[in-house]
UniProtKB/TrEMBL annotation:
It is an enzyme of class 1 (oxidoreductase). It comes from Gordonia pseudamarae. One of its GO terms (molecular function) is phosphogluconate dehydrogenase (decarboxylating) activity. Pfam families: 6PGD, NAD_binding_2. Belongs to the 6-phosphogluconate dehydrogenase family. Its EC number is 1.1.1.44. The keyword Membrane does not apply. The keyword NADP applies. The gene is gndA. It comes from the Bacteria. Pathway: Carbohydrate degradation; pentose phosphate pathway; D-ribulose 5-phosphate from D-glucose 6-phosphate (oxidative stage): step 3/3. This is 6-phosphogluconate dehydrogenase, decarboxylating. Keywords: Gluconate utilization, NADP, Oxidoreductase, Pentose shunt. Signal peptide: none annotated.
Length: 475
């Protein structure tokens, strides 16, 4: 045996990460259910480093140095379970199985438990960065036994992206923690993209800017506080001209957004944890609405009522949209980090938010300058109650709040949907409100269901005898 790492599942992600390991000087054992993929990889890229070909799982496992380290890159769900089972049967106590697919974190918790009983280490590693990242340096979020990270960590860190000499990979915590934070990462990615989409829509429909000019606006924004991979590629996608029609490509793409599930998982988890991750939820719902083709067609004739005219000062409104995008983005991240803190508490993971912001600075889809500020915020105050309260973000959001309100008000007045801008502003306003209408909700709940309420002026639980003389009793 001579391979330091093995990769099974050699579709795009697995092939590229195997090549990444080989390019970094490791000997990599290769395996795929259908051997054709293994041979295709060797034929095309076999000269990039040292690979060991295998046809069966037994051969694959036999090629690995001990403790054996095998990375699974197959479809999440049943396929992953099948591969884990066959690997586990061929391995020995102390060996490490890494699942680099997009597994649901509860599956990872279950698998880690089952494998631990057999003496095997199971590491659920979230990997972000798509095909390109897998090849040249992804962000890696491994969760699992701390002991396994000792031997596995250096390998993963050497193939991960790097920012300022710091690898975009760190041990996240036990069992499902790595896949959980990867899931929320993807949820934040949904929110980021929705906010970018709303900004684009306002520039297009309210200001009537030509697509090429909107591309320039995003390119300019990418040189400032919003500098990020997603804003950068927004400028590129908007600048793309369709060869066939000569129109901007974006204008010939069907406006129905797909989704593979990680955004939906994030929102389901947020609901279970009771965390208002509204930005991500609005983004998931916005994709669903865009794909409600029949309803949209049927509703196309609904009246917009009387619409206001567009703002007259174009440059001011562009700056307003920038401020709204920035502030809403802070809200989306604040909510995402709240969800991670809640998940960490629920499952006893002890996830370090600052370390997470650090590894998300490079390699992954949400990589952004912005994450440096988040990293600093948690370095300054690890107990931060909300990212919105970190001095830097507080100042930035407060400076832009008038713009944010103008954008949401203008969107409403001109009939442009801005679910993420709007709900983020409402979240901000709710969070800073002295009194919320939840007091009335409690009164109603007490009226119809005797659910009781607490009082502002004394401890205890109370109930009003709504059906009787309406006096108050102690519950
Ligand atoms: P796919 O998700 O398309 O999976 C294809 C691979 O799974 C093939 O190697 C296939 O083998 C194997 N496979 C499927 N079913 C089985 C089974 N029952 N037993 C054994 N092997 C099986 O590949 P990707 O490279 O796109 O993604 C791999 C993982 O990485 C997924 O979990 C994905 O969610 C995740 N991921 C993907 C990203 C992306 O940008 N694509 C980004 C981040 C994570 P065969 O060739 O024999 O059919």
């Amino acid at each position: 045996p001579q391979a330091q790492i093995g990769v099974t599942g050699l579709a795009v992600m697995g092939s590229n990460i195997a090549r990444n390991f080989a390019r970094n000087g490791y000997t990599v054992a290769l395996h795929n259910r259908s051997v054709a993929k293994t041979d295709a990889l060797l034929a095309e890229h076999g000269d990039e480093g040292s690979f060991i070909r295998s046809e069966t799982i037994e051969e694959f496992v036999a090629a690995l140095e001990r403790p054996r380290r095998a990375l699974i890159m197959v479809q999440a769900g049943a396929a992953t379970d099948a591969v884990i089972d066959s690997l586990a049967d061929a391995m020995e106590p102390g060996d490490v199985i890494i699942d680099g697919g997009n597994a649901l974190y509860t599956d990872t918790i279950r698998r880690e438990k089952a494998l631990a009983e057999r003496g095997l280490h199971f590491v659920g590693a979230g990997i972000s960065g798509g095909e390109e990242g897998a090849l040249n340096g992804p962000a890696i979020m491994p969760g699992g036994p701390a002991e396994s990270y000792k031997s596995l960590g250096p390998l993963l860190e050497s193939v991960a992206a790097e920012v300022d000499g710091v690898p975009c990979c760190t041990h996240i915590g036990p069992d499902g923690s790595g896949h959980f934070v990867k899931m929320v990462h993807n949820g934040i990615e949904y929110a980021d993209m929705q906010l970018i989409g709303e900004a684009y829509d306002l520039l297009r429909r309210v200001l009537g800017l030509p697509t090429a000019e909107i591309a320039d606006v995003f390119a300019r924004w990418n040189t400032g506080a919003l500098e990020s991979y997603l804003v950068e590629i927004t400028a590129e996608v908007l600048a793309q001209v369709d060869a066939e029609t000569g129109k901007p490509l974006v204008d010939v793409i069907v406006d129905e957004a797909g989704q593979k599930g990680t955004g939906r998982w994030t929102v389901k988890s947020a609901l279970d944890l009771g965390i208002p991750t509204t930005g991500i939820a609005e983004a998931v719902f916005a994709r669903a609405l865009s794909s409600s083709t029949e309803q949209r067609k049927a509703a196309a004739g609904l009246s917009a009522g009387t619409l206001a005219a567009a703002p007259t000062d174009k440059d001011t409104f562009i700056d307003d949209i920038h401020a709204a995008l920035y502030a809403s983005k802070v809200v989306a991240y604040a909510q995402g980090f709240d969800q991670i803190a809640a998940g960490s508490k629920e499952y006893g993971w002890d996830v370090d938010p600052g370390a997470l912001a650090t590894i998300w600075r490079g390699g992954c889809i949400i990589r952004a300058q912005f994450l440096n500020r988040i990293r600093e915020a948690y370095a300054e105050d690890p107990q931060l109650p909300s990212l919105l309260l970190a001095p830097y973000f507080r100042e930035a959001v407060e400076a832009g709040v008038d713009s944010w309100r103008r954008v949401v008000a203008t969107a409403a007045a001109t009939g442009i949907p801005v679910p993420a801008f709007g709900s983020s502003l409402s979240y901000y306003d709710a969070l800073r409100s002295d009194r919320l209408p939840a007091a009335l909700t409690q009164g109603l709940r007490d009226y119809f269901g005797a659910h009781t309420y607490r009082r502002t002026d004394k401890p205890g639980s109370f109930h009003t005898l709504w059906g009787g003389d309406r006096s108050e009793v102690t519950a």
